[in-house]
Design brief:
Blueprint (H helix, E strand, L loop, with lengths): L15 H4 L21 H5 L3 E2 L2 H17 L4 E6 L1 H14 L2 H7 L8 E6 L2 E6 L1
Parallel strand pairs: 1-2
Antiparallel strand pairs: 2-4, 3-4
Helix pairs in contact: 3-4
Length: 126
């Protein structure tokens, strides 16, 4: 028996516009449009879910530099499914330029590892 894959459902209490980015909606029932996001978990907790890889990368740099200055080496951002994959590719394409980008925020780690699990993309700085 191998490792059990994790499954994260991050579309509870989302708008119809948000769910239609990754799902097809059948119109076989007449139901009200889902437009409110007041009770969305992320909104209620003040958590930003990024949909743009470039925006997520910029905020990850800012957060990682601030965390590193406080001695915290792990930083993560939450992205949409498509965004997290694009962010992984973006960081991979940047290669060692990531260090220069971090340095622009006053952060000079000796090493960096990165990856994602579900919707959470992370940097681990050494």
């Amino acid at each position: 028996i191998g490792e059990v894959p994790s499954c994260i459902y991050s579309y509870f209490c989302v708008t119809e516009e948000q769910i239609s980015q990754t799902h097809d909606i059948d119109d076989f029932l007449s139901i009200p449009k889902a437009t409110a996001d007041e009770y969305n978990y992320y909104n209620a907790k003040g958590i930003t879910v990024y949909t743009s890889a470039r925006t997520a990368y910029s905020m990850l740099l800012v957060q990682a530099a601030a965390n590193y200055a406080r001695g915290e080496k792990h930083t993560e951002v939450i992205c949409s499914e498509k965004c997290v994959e694009q962010l992984y590719e973006l960081v991979g394409d940047k290669g060692s330029d990531v260090y220069n980008d971090l340095k622009a925020y006053g952060c000079s780690p000796r090493g960096l590892s990165y990856g994602y699990k579900g919707s959470r993309f992370y940097f681990d700085l050494q």
